[in-house]
């Protein structure tokens, strides 16, 4: 029998969990890979403000470990609200001429975000080292830590009904390891209890508690601003990212990728 879910006060993020990515200019791009490995995020500056630049940047940073690129996404938000901390990942396969084609992967391990047009007011970005965050939970909230590492959920169940989303539930845990030993720390608003899970109420309570803990960490994270053409590169297994609300229009291009480290 599981212990009840106790309510606690707001979580404080670990002192070293906030990330201010190093800015690496194009003429020193060889510094980007070790910076990404060290911090979980890096900003590339000086690239052309084009979708092609994202592909070039992926090759520069990931190198010969690059295995798959997924289609670009361009997003414009107008007077947008905040985007909370999250990791990318979506299970999307489409049929093109009778051939299944994968457009998104639930375990994309790299994300590249290029600022096409920054918002005129606000819209700053923030990032958190999820490894440090969940390591801190082991002592600050062992019950929530045990849930993230030990309980299966339907990772995309909240999005059932979207075109292209598989009908088969994507079952997994928030903290898992790849076959090669890389740790994945997931953060998605799509997670729900598995259908008819006898622990449904406990799972729902922990999912809400996890969301509250993540949102509480956002206010104290350092902010950084992406200028036009800047490319934010993220280790999607390790680093969650988000942005503040803004006024006016803001446009970004997004490219997700998988490397051999995702095996």
UniProtKB/TrEMBL annotation:
This is TauD/TfdA-like domain-containing protein. The keyword Cell inner membrane does not apply. Residues 1-32 are annotated as: Disordered. One of its GO terms (molecular function) is oxidoreductase activity. Keywords: Iron, Oxidoreductase. The keyword RNA-binding does not apply. It comes from the Bacteria. Residues 29-252 form the TauD/TfdA-like domain.
């Amino acid at each position: 029998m599981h212990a009840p879910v106790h309510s606690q006060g707001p979580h404080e993020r670990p002192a070293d969990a906030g990330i201010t990515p190093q800015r690496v200019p194009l003429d020193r791009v060889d510094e980007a890979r070790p910076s990404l490995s060290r911090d979980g995020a890096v900003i590339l500056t000086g690239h052309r403000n084009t979708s092609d630049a994202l592909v070039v940047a992926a090759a520069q940073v990931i190198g010969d470990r690059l295995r798959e690129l997924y289609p670009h996404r361009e997003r414009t938000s107008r007077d947008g609200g905040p985007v909370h901390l999250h990791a990318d990942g979506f299970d999307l396969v489409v049929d093109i001429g009778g051939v299944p084609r994968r457009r998104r992967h639930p375990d994309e391990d790299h994300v590249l975000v290029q600022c096409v047009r920054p918002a005129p007011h606000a819209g700053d970005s923030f990032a958190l080292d999820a490894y440090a965050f969940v390591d801190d939970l082991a002592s600050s909230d062992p019950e929530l830590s045990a849930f993230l590492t030990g309980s299966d959920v339907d990772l995309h169940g909240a999005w059932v009904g979207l075109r292209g989303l598989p009908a088969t539930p994507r079952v997994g845990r928030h903290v898992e390891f790849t076959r090669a030993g890389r740790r994945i720390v997931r953060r998605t608003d799509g997670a729900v209890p598995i259908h008819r899970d006898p622990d449904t109420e406990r799972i729902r309570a922990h999912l809400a508690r996890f969301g509250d803990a993540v949102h509480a960490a956002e206010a104290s994270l350092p902010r950084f601003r992406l200028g036009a053409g800047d490319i934010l590169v993220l280790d999607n297994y390790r680093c969650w990212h988000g942005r503040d609300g803004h006024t006016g229009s803001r446009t970004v291009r997004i490219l997700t990728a998988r490397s051999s480290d995702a095996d």
